[in-house]
Amino acid sequence: MISCSAIRKNYGKIPALNNISFEVQKGEIFGLIGPDGAGKTTFFRILTTLILADEGSATVNGYDVVRSYESVRKCVGYMPGRFSLYQDLTVAENLEFFATVFNTSIQENYDLIRDIYQQIEPFKHRRAGKLSGGMKQKLALSCALIHKPTVLFLDEPTTGVDPVSRKEFWGMLKRLQHQGITILVSTPYMDEAGLCDRIALIQRGSFLSIDTPAGIVAGFRKRLFSVHSQSMSQLLKDLRGLAFVESCYAFGDSHHITLKEQANTITSESIQLQLHQMGHQHVVVREIQAGIEDCFMELSNQ
Amino acid sequence: MDKVIVAEQLTKQFGHFTAVDHISFEVERGEIFGFLGANGAGKTTAMRMLCGLSLPTSGKARVAGFDIATQTELVKQNIGYMSQKFALYDELTVAENIRLYAGIYDVPKNDIQIRTHELLQRLGFESERNTFVHSLPLGWKQKLAFSVAIIHQPRIVFLDEPTGGVDPVTRRQFWEMIYEATDRGITAFVTTHYMDEAEYCNRVSVMVDGKIAAMDSPAQLRKDFNAKTMDDVFHQLARNASRKAE
Predict the structure, then answer these.
(1) B246 neighbourhood in chain A, CB within 8 Å
(2) Disulfide: which of A1, A68, A79, B124 matches A144 by Cβ 3.0-4.6 Å?
(3) Of B133, B152, B171, which one is at a domain's C-terminal end?
(4) Residue B97 lies in a domain
(5) Boundary of a domain, candidates B97, B124, B152
(6) SS3 B94
(7) Are B130 and B176 members of one domain?
C-alpha cells in the first residue's frame, strides 16, 4: 500500500532522511518509532506529497507521490503532529469543510467516524480552538477520515497525551484497521510499538531496524539483566563500575544491564553476590528478555 | 523539616468549573516529587498557581518560603522552570542564553561569568560556547535548558514534561541530571506522561478531576493498588475520571 525506495532528503547541509526504503502492506498498522528530530515528520510530508524528496521514489496506493500527487491526495488521510484545523470554525464546520473539499458529505461516511465523532458531537457548536487537547485530537482524526481514505498517516497522534487516553486512541486505531484502512503512525513512546503489526525504529534519519515487534525483540543478542536494590542511585553508579557491565540504564523500578561479550560465566547469582559484598541490601537480579526500548537503545548505540 | 512547598486546600475555579479542588500537600527539600494526572485533571492550573502565575480562588500555598497569593514576584525569583515545549532561544548562542537567563534572574554581574564558565565546564560544552542553540543536538539542548533553569540556584525547579519526545538514552541522562541537582539540595517538581519516570520520583501524586486521588512513594502506591507497575496504578486511578473528554 506504501512503497519507498532509497528516499533521501537534506535541509541545507543537514541530512533529514538517509536512504529510506520500506513497504507497508494493505491493512497493516505500521509504526515509525523514534525521538524528535529523527526525521519522522519529513518522511510523512514526502509521502503525503507536501514536500519533495531529493532522491528516491515512493508510491502510495500505487500512485507515485510526485507524478500522481493529485491521486495520492484523494486517497490519503493525514493528521499532522501540530493541530492544524481551523480554530475559528466550530467542530461541525471543520468536519463539513473537509467533507466538502473532498467532494463528499458527512452523512456518506458517517459510519467510519461514528465511534470517534460521537464523543465530541455534544460540543459540535464549539470553536475548534476552544477544545481540550483530547477533543482536538478526536476532531482531527474525524476530519482525516471523512473522505474514507485508504491510507491514514498519523504523525505523533499521542504525544503529550496521558496513558489512559493513549490506550483509548489505540483502541480507535484497531477498529479502523478492522475496516480495512492501512495506517502509518509515528510515536516517540516505545510502549506503543507493541500495538503495531510491524515497526521501523528510526534515529537521525536512518532506519535502525524494520520488523514485527516480536522480531525486533528476538534480534536482541546480548544478555540482559534487571537489577534492583534498596539504594537505586548508588546501584546505578556501582553497576557502571563493574568490569563485566557494558551498559546500565534505569528502567522504572529497576536498572537494566547488558554484559560484555566475554562475560559469559556471569549469572544472576554472581551479580547478586557481588552487589551484596558492596553493601547493597534487598538485591534482586533477574535475567530478562529485552523490550523494544532496550532494543532501540542498543541499536542507537551501534 | 524543611518544606519547600506547603499547599493547603488550594483551589481554582473558572466560573462554575473547579479546575483544582482543595488540594493539600507538602514537598520537602531535595525531594523529587512527581505530579501526575490525566490531561485535564488540573495539573497545569495547579502548577501555574505554584509558580505565581495564577491566583488561587481559595486556599493557600507557600513555595520556597513565599506566599503564592501575596508574594508572587518573590515566588518567581526563587523558583526555576523548564518545559519541553519552550526553554531556550534558538537564535541566541549557548553563552547568550546563559547570560540572558542569569540576567533575568538577577544573578550578580560578576557571578554570571563565573557561573557560565562553571556550567560550560560541567556540561563539557566549552567548545560550543558560541554555537547557536538551534544547531545543538536535542540531548544537549535538554541539558543546557535544565542548567539555565537552575542558574540562579533556586530552592525548587518545576519541570513540565521535560522529556516529551526525547530519545530513550537522553531521557535517562536527563534524569541523572535531576538526581545530581537534588543531591545538591534543589527540589524537583516534575510532570511526565512516561510512567517509568514516575518510578524515579521519591513520591508521586496522581490528580483526578481536580483532586489528589493518591500520593505516596511509587513502591507504596504499587503495593496499595496491588499493581505491578506505576502504569497500572495510573490506569486504575484515571480510568474512572469524569473529565475524560478533556
Answers:
(1) 132-135
(2) A79
(3) B152
(4) yes
(5) B152
(6) helix
(7) no
User: How do the domains of chain A map onto residue ranges?
Assistant: 2-218, 224-301
Q: Check whether residue B196 and residue B96 sit in a common domain.
A: no
**Closest approach of A252 to chain B, Cα-based (Å):** 4
Complex-level ipTM? 0.79
Side-by-side strand order, sheet with A284-288: A245-251, A254-259, A224-228, A284-288
Name every chain A residue with its beta carbon within 8 A of the beta carbon of B140: none
- Which range of residues forms the domain containing residue B71? 1-78+154-246
Binary contact (A35, B161; C-beta < 8 A):
no
Q: A253 vs B175: CB contact, 8 Å cut-off?
A: no
Q: How many beta-carbon contacts under 8 Å exist across A and B?
A: 100
Sign of CA dihedral B143, B83, B197, A224: negative
Q: Identify whether residues B110 and B139 lie together within a single domain.
A: yes
Distance from CA of B192 to the nearest CA of A (A): 9
Place of cell 518573590: B74
Per-residue pLDDT 10s for chain A (302 aa) are: 999 999 999 998 888 999 999 999 999 999 999 887 889 999 999 999 999 999 999 999 999 999 999 999 999 999 998 888 999 999 999 999 999 999 999 999 998 899 889 989 999 999 999 887 778 889 999 999 999 999 999 999 988 788 888 888 999 999 999 999 999 999 888 889 999 999 999 988 999 999 999 999 999 989 999 999 988 888 999 999 999 999 999 998 899 999 988 887 889 999 999 999 999 999 999 999 999 999 999 888 76
How many Å apart are CA B212 and CA B208, to the nearest integer? 6
**Fold of the domain built from segment(s) A224-301:** Alpha-Beta Plaits (3.30.70)
Facing A253 at nearest CB: one of B39, B164, B199: B199
In the chain, the amino acid numbered B167 is: D
HSE of B8, CA atoms in CB hemisphere, 13 A: 5
